[in-house]
Every structure is written in C-alpha cells, then in structure tokens.
Amino acid sequence: MHGELVQLGYQVGASTVWTILRSAHVDPAPRRSGPTWRQFLHTQAHAHPRL
Fold first, then answer.
1. Which residues are CB-contacts of 19 (< 8 A; sequence separation ≥ 6)?
2. Within 13 Å, how many C-alpha atoms sit on residue 15's CB side?
3. Which residues of the chain fall short of a pLDDT of 50?
4. SS3 4
5. What is the per-residue pLDDT for 50?
C-alpha cells in the first residue's frame, strides 16, 4: 500500500501507513502457501522459451 501511495505522489512513511491500518484494525495479509515470486518467474521462464 505504501508503494502505491508513493507512486500517486503522496509522501508518506511506511510506518505511518502501518499505524493507520493498525488503528483501523486491518491486519496484514496472511502468507501465501504458493510459490515465491522468484520460483514463479523461474518456472515461467522455463515454460516459455524465447522465440
């Protein structure tokens, strides 16, 4: 969320975003059981050879 706000031009600290979400009782997303980004990209690179 912090990164998205920065891209929109807002100057806000990551800890500020965390504090706001915490005060609104918004918990962090649970960890996914699937592959990491690195594993996903590695799999995709090998599944789709360059033409």
1. none
2. 0
3. none
4. helix
5. 67
